[in-house]
Amino acid sequence: xxxxxxxxxxxxxxxxxxxxxxxxxxxxxxxxxxxxxxxxxxxxxxxxxxxxxxxxxxxxxxxxxxxxxxxxxxxxxxxxxxxxxxxxxxxxxxxxxxxxxxxxxxxxxxxxxxxxxxxxxxxxxxxxxxxxxxxxxxxxxxxxxxxxxxxxxxxxxxxxxxxxxxxxxxxxxxxxxxxxxxxxxxxxxxxxxxxxx
Length: 197
Hints:
The chain is an all-beta fold. Helices cover 0% and strands 50% of the residues.
């Protein structure tokens, strides 16, 4: 899906405008909740490390005052552009050594870093797909020798305001790139809404 998608329901001419990112703009900075909803992971990026490729993410506990986080090598799977797949071979949590199942204590609102070492050669420039618990990242760039940016606490991004309903008596609406999707609904790639004069 590229650009904006406009769905029109002709019963009452209600227009809902949905903005979506096309493809994959970048894995870095993507955030998703853990499986219990107690905190969030944020992907920081991948780079050439001392033993091949290393990817870092942060975990921030948000619902509880304290807890622990563990990360297992078997929970990480990568896919290369030439069709090969592999698991992580070492993981470190909050400065622990690299093991296959490290665990660390965490406290509310203090991010800890999770570093994942992948069995990829130093010349790797991207990972076709990286599957982590609760998240799939596609076309992940691998920087050559530069660690990802440090953890930065970002305030939660507010949800976008819903598009206002458009009264067809007050506006001219010109749609383009429309295709019928069934049940009287259409998906359009563009729209121009101008006030009537």
